[in-house]
Amino acid sequence: MRADRLLSLVLLLRHRGRMTASALARELEVSTRTVLRDVEALSAAGVPVYAERGRDGGFALLPGFTTDLTGLTHDEAVALLTSRSRVTSEALGMGPAFTSAMAKLVAAMPDGARSRATDAADRVLVRRGGLIGEPEPDRHPEAVQRAVLSGHRLRIRYPSRGRPPTWRTVDPLGLVSAAGRWYLLALHDGADRTYRLSRITEAEELAEPAARPAGVDLEALWQRRRAEFLASHTGMRARLRIRSSRRAEVVRVATAGVTDVEQQGEWLVVDVGFGDLTHAARVVWSLAVDAEALGPPELREAIRARAQRLVDTHS
């Protein structure tokens, strides 16, 4: 539609500055002649597009021209920007379209609002692979979210391993949603820590700014923390016979990697590290007929017992 193309043209100039007609044509996937007609139409409609001639010339918007085409509030923009995850866009087959839409959204926002929204969005990450365990209801998500997005310190009451909850003041780095759970990544006494929101018993946002280092890579930090956690929680090794096409899925949920033992046509025998018996049984069960637990015996018995309960329920 031409209206959508005109909007895209304005947003491109707003976001990138001066562009040649040929560059605009490539971006909009139209002819240079069409771009020239669109620029003329925008000028007639009162949009201050002007041409600069010469080898380095092109089209640009008058300095100071701003757009507020989205009508989004700060919170709405953050909600959209934090949905950039591969879990949503790529799962729906909309990766390129989603990226283009986000670029238009960012370009359309006023400078100050754009900076605040993108900074807040960089503090939230959504990923498929989590740690170990079933999803649980989160506690105090509003207070934690406010502190993370506003860049304030956070006071939380949180239990240590084998000990009752105690108060601690942390500097939030970001929020991560993984496998149905939310995690707070933060600094405590200068060391990075991971806190599960479902285990926070009380939370209080403080007025003082958080000591958040510049250039925090939330993705890299999460992957490192997850790898460290999984490596320290390998309580069971199991041998499985799986379809080769499911290997990547098993690798993603294992705690200590996958070692190939033998190829049997389309099947593969592997050794896998799991957190515990419950974790192993849940993974094997999710693979259904594409996996068989060869050992240890207690894993085979857990799968057999679960299948028997299902049969009994539907008898």
Automatic annotation (TrEMBL):
<keyword id="KW-0804">Transcription</keyword>
<dbReference type="Pfam" id="PF13280">
    <property type="entry name" value="WYL"/>
</dbReference>
<feature type="domain" description="HTH deoR-type">
    <location>
        <begin position="2"/>
        <end position="57"/>
    </location>
</feature>
<dbReference type="InterPro" id="IPR051534">
    <property type="entry name" value="CBASS_pafABC_assoc_protein"/>
</dbReference>
<dbReference type="Pfam" id="PF25583">
    <property type="entry name" value="WCX"/>
</dbReference>
<dbReference type="InterPro" id="IPR013196">
    <property type="entry name" value="HTH_11"/>
</dbReference>
<dbReference type="InterPro" id="IPR026881">
    <property type="entry name" value="WYL_dom"/>
</dbReference>
<dbReference type="InterPro" id="IPR036390">
    <property type="entry name" value="WH_DNA-bd_sf"/>
</dbReference>
<dbReference type="InterPro" id="IPR036388">
    <property type="entry name" value="WH-like_DNA-bd_sf"/>
</dbReference>
<dbReference type="InterPro" id="IPR057727">
    <property type="entry name" value="WCX_dom"/>
</dbReference>
<dbReference type="Pfam" id="PF08279">
    <property type="entry name" value="HTH_11"/>
</dbReference>
<dbReference type="InterPro" id="IPR028349">
    <property type="entry name" value="PafC-like"/>
</dbReference>
<protein>
    <submittedName>
        <fullName>Helix-turn-helix transcriptional regulator</fullName>
    </submittedName>
</protein>
<keyword id="KW-0805">Transcription regulation</keyword>
<dbReference type="InterPro" id="IPR001034">
    <property type="entry name" value="DeoR_HTH"/>
</dbReference>
